[in-house]
Specification:
Length: 107
């Protein structure tokens, strides 16, 4: 059975894209009073790709668990465990930027 959690995303209806990182959004909205009519939902920002307004949404995200077996190689090669962990987290964060990465210590 899959686990889910609530996450905040932003949706650009012009690009029809779901934006998952704050770096994809410009939070300062230019000419907001000209672009949003009274009674309309207040946008969260602008899409950095097309400049259209984006709206915040809360969605369910499926949590997936992956196990990497590198501990033995790290110990055998004499690598600094924390340095390897930091590098691995940085590399995986770049590749899997739409996922939540959690590393667990095994005893």
């Amino acid at each position: 059975m899959s686990q889910t959690r609530k996450v905040k995303v932003w949706h650009c209806y012009n690009c029809n894209m779901t934006l998952r990182r704050e770096s994809q959004i410009r939070f300062e909205i230019r000419d907001i009073h000209e672009r949003v009519a009274p009674g309309e939902p207040m946008p969260a920002g602008e899409c950095v790709e097309c400049g259209s307004l984006v709206h915040e949404e809360i969605v369910d995200q499926v949590i997936k668990t992956y196990t990497f077996c590198i501990e033995g190689a790290i110990v055998r090669q004499g690598f600094d465990r924390e340095a390897v962990r930091e590098k691995l987290e940085a590399d995986l964060d770049e590749v899997f930027s739409n996922y939540d990465l959690t590393f667990q210590n095994e005893s």
